[in-house]
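Technical note accompanying the year-one report. For the benefit of new consortium partners, we illustrate the data format agreed upon in the data management plan: each record pairs a sequence with a structure-token string. No post-processing was applied to the example shown here.
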Amino acid sequence: QVQLVESGGGLVQPGESLRLSCAGSGFTLDGYTIGWFRQAPGKEREGLSCISASDGTTYYTDSVKGRFTISRDQAKNTVYLQMNSLKPEDTAVYSCAAEWNSHCGTVDHFSSWGQGTQVIVSS
């Protein structure tokens, strides 16, 4: 069973950084395309970033491009989302999701989701 566990959320001030982790539990993330998403209260879920299984190609939505970086550590079986220059509008529940043997350019759904981690950006 594919289980994803997010961690690293918290309360930070504007301009600060956080690194979110998405760990595979009981399986290896190798071979899975991993996406990061967020959902703020009253808003729809937003896709933020993706890293492809096949070739490591990454994708970022415009609102986080240049501030967020996705990366994969195979040895730790973890995908990270480094978030810099955080803004109050980044406040949301952040979730990772996995899809087997796919690519960020073509994936149309993610089969497995983590439980999410809360990020609050406030002064």
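Partners are asked to follow this layout when depositing records. DSSP finds no helices and eleven strands in the chain.
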